[in-house]
Design goal:
This protein is mostly helical. The chain has helices at residues 2-32, 41-45, 52-73, 76-79, 82-93, 97-105, 110-118, 132-186, 191-248, 250-255. Helix 7 (110-118) packs across helix 8 (132-186). The chain is rod-shaped, with a radius of gyration of 34 Å.
Length: 263
């Protein structure tokens, strides 16, 4: 019984204290005859961050623009379209290498440019492998050259992800320096005097992290997406070469496969 009474008393006390804390600002405003001033969300969450917020929001705009651009660029239609892959494979199955090269050269996709760059290295005199080593070396050269162009735009996201927290930290340092300067001048820790500098310190850190976290996630998503599309194109080229080899060496290939086992 005593325990129940103590628990109920504690609950009542907590309720009363919470009510007083919530209603005290309004009562104080009424007592002084001044209504509380409600500031806009833009000022509270953005403008109070100071001039450092200009650079942070420039980084946010850069993140949005690069994300949209890269997602529009890294699509299967622009890298390894199914219709082009099927048409090229059919040409290679019939050993029409020139037709495959002409078709690939007329297509602006990643796969088309890779095929047009690598298939001219096929050597018809080497019926065993059709000069596979030279073809694969050309494919490797093409991917290195193309990767440099594509990864430049993806790596900009990594730069933004690393710079955003640093810009937030810069704003934090500026805010703390201003706070200590205010303390030095006023000689007292008046919250109303320190509020502006503290807002600069906290808001810049907040927005820097808000921009950095999704930028890191999007960077790795786009990087993996590009690697997968590139690997699919390389696999398609190797599949075409294997198809041509199977056609050229069909008699030799099937000759090695026994029709049955002797009893």
């Amino acid at each position: 019984m005593i325990q129940k009474f103590a628990n109920r008393s504690a609950q009542v006390t907590a309720t009363v204290v919470t009510t007083i804390l919530l209603t005290a600002p309004a009562l104080f405003a009424q007592g002084t005859g001044k209504a509380p001033v409600k500031e806009s969300m833009l000022k509270v969450w953005v403008l109070d961050g100071g001039w450092t917020m200009i650079f942070i929001f420039a980084a946010i705009i850069g993140f949005i623009a690069l994300t949209i651009y890269n997602f529009m660029t890294l699509t299967k239609a622009k890298y390894c379209p199914s219709d082009l892959r099927a048409a090229l494979t059919e040409h290679m199955r019939n050993c029409r290498v020139r037709s495959a090269i002409e078709l690939a050269a007329s297509h602006p996709s990643y796969l088309g440019r890779m095929v047009a760059y690598s298939l001219p290295n096929i050597d018809a005199t080497q019926t065993e492998d059709l000069g596979r080593d030279h073809v694969e070396d050309a494919m490797a050269d093409f991917t290195v050259n193309e990767n440099r162009k594509v990864m430049t735009w993806i790596n900009f996201l990594s730069v933004i992800a690393q710079a955003s927290p640093m810009l937030g930290l810069l704003g934090t340092v500026i805010g703390m320096v201003g706070a200590f300067g205010t303390l030095k001048v006023s000689g007292s820790a008046d919250p109303s005097l320190l509020a502006g500098d503290i807002s600069v310190a906290l808001l810049t850190t907040l927005w820097g992290l808000i921009n950095a976290i999704p930028t890191i996630v999007v960077f790795y998503i786009l990087k993996n997406r590009f690697n997968n599309l590139q690997a699919e194109c390389v696999h398609a080229c190797e599949e075409m070469l294997n198809t041509a080899l199977a056609t050229v060496n069909a008699d030799t290939l099937y000759a090695k496969i026994p029709e049955g086992l002797a009893v």
